C-alpha cells in the first residue's frame, strides 16, 4: 500500500475530492497528466518516480503516512516546481534539488503550466537513516535528526554531476523483479550518501569511510552480478574493490542486509526465477547454469 496521501487543487478552488474517486495522479484531460512510479524498499524507505505535465497551475498536497520523522529528497530531472511546507518555500529545477527533515510531512507542490516536470523523490524514516549513518560528525540538523531531536529543516542545493548521474542510473534500472529492487536499494543508499555530502559542502556530513565502504559494496555487487556463475573468491573480490574482507562483509551487511555469500545465493535464485518466468531458458538449462558449485570462498 502506498504510504502517501495526496490531493490536487486548482486556482479556482476545485479539488480532487470534489470529483468521483480516482487513482493516484489521475487528472481530467483538460488539466493535464501525471505518472507516479512507487517503489517500496526495505521498511522505512521508498522511492517515487514522478512525471507530469499540466495545462493549468496545479497544486498537489501530499503527506507521508508514517509515525516518525522523515527525511525527503526531491531530485528533479526536468521542469520546475515550487515546494511549500508551512515553513519555507523552495524552488525546484534540474539545477537544484531539495531536502526536508520534518515531523509534519504535509507539503504543497505548485506545478507550473506548460512545464514537463520529472523528479525522483526519496523518503526515509529517521530509524531507517539511523541504521545507515551511525557516525555523528554530521551537520547539526542531521545530527539532531539522528538523535531523535528532529527540528524542521529545509534546504535547496545545487545538483552535482555525481548526484545527477546516480539519479539517471536509478531511472534506467536494467533489472526486473527482486533483482531490480536490490539494485534500486543499493543505488538509493549511494544517492543518499552523496546528497548528504553535497549538502555539507566542505563539512563532512556523513563519514567518508562509511560512504566509501558503501560504494565499494555496490562495486562488489556489480562484479558479482556480472559473474554469478563463477564468482571471484572473497579475497579477490575485496582486492578488486580496494578493501579488506572484513570491511567488505560489514559494508554488505549495511547496504544489503546480508553477508556476500548470502547475497550471492539470493541473486542467483532471483536470476534463475526470472529466467524461468520469462521462458528464456528451460528448467534443465537454468539448473545447469545456476548450480551451486561455485561460491565465494576466502
Automatic annotation (TrEMBL):
<keyword id="KW-0804">Transcription</keyword>
<keyword id="KW-0805">Transcription regulation</keyword>
<dbReference type="Pfam" id="PF12833">
    <property type="entry name" value="HTH_18"/>
</dbReference>
<dbReference type="InterPro" id="IPR053142">
    <property type="entry name" value="PchR_regulatory_protein"/>
</dbReference>
<dbReference type="GO" id="GO:0003700">
    <property type="term" value="F:DNA-binding transcription factor activity"/>
</dbReference>
<protein>
    <recommendedName>
        <fullName>HTH araC/xylS-type domain-containing protein</fullName>
    </recommendedName>
</protein>
<dbReference type="InterPro" id="IPR018060">
    <property type="entry name" value="HTH_AraC"/>
</dbReference>
<feature type="domain" description="HTH araC/xylS-type">
    <location>
        <begin position="218"/>
        <end position="287"/>
    </location>
</feature>
<dbReference type="InterPro" id="IPR009057">
    <property type="entry name" value="Homeodomain-like_sf"/>
</dbReference>
<dbReference type="GO" id="GO:0043565">
    <property type="term" value="F:sequence-specific DNA binding"/>
</dbReference>
Amino acid at each position: 500500500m502506498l504510504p502517501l496521501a495526496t490531493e490536487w487543487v486548482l486556482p479556482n478552488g476545485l479539488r480532487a475530492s470534489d470529483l468521483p474517486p480516482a487513482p493516484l495522479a489521475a487528472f481530467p484531460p483538460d488539466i493535464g497528466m501525471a505518472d507516479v512510479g512507487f517503489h517500496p524498499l526495505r521498511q522505512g524507505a521508498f522511492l517515487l518516480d514522478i512525471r507530469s505535465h499540466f495545462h493549468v497551475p496545479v497544486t498537489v498536497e501530499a503527506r507521508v503516512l508514517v509515525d516518525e520523522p522523515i527525511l525527503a529528497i526531491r531530485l528533479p530531472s526536468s521542469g520546475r516546481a515550487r515546494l511549500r511546507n508551512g515553513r519555507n518555500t523552495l524552488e525546484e529545477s534540474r539545477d537544484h534539488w531539495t531536502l526536508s527533515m520534518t515531523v509534519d510531512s504535509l507539503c504543497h507542490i505548485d506545478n507550473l503550466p506548460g512545464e514537463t516536470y520529472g523528479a525522483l523523490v526519496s523518503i526515509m524514516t529517521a530509524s531507517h537513516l539511523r541504521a545507515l549513518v551511525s557516525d555523528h560528525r554530521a551537520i547539526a540538523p542531521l545530527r539532531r535528526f539522528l538523535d531523535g531531536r528532529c527540528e524542521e529543516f529545509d534546504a535547496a542545493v545545487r545538483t552535482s554531476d555525481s548526484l545527477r548521474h546516480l539519479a539517471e542510473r536509478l531511472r534506467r534500472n536494467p533489472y526486473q523483479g527482486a533483482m531490480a529492487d536490490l539494485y534500486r536499494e543499493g543505488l538509493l543508499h549511494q544517492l543518499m550518501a552523496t546528497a548528504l555530502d553535497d549538502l555539507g559542502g566542505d563539512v563532512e556530513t556523513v563519514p567518508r569511510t562509511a560512504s566509501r565502504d558503501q560504494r565499494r559494496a555496490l562495486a562488489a555487487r556489480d562484479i558479482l552480478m556480472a559473474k554469478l556463475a563463477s564468482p571471484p573468491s572473497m579475497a579477490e573480490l575485496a582486492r578488486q574493490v580496494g578493501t579488506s574482507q572484513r570491511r567488505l562483509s560489514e559494508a554488505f551487511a549495511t547496504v544489503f542486509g546480508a553477508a556476500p555469500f548470502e547475497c550471492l545465493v539470493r541473486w542467483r535464485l532471483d536470476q534463475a526465477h526470472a529466467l524461468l518466468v520469462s521462458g528464456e531458458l528451460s528448467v534443465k538449462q537454468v539448473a545447469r547454469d545456476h548450480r551451486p558449485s561455485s561460491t565465494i570462498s576466502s
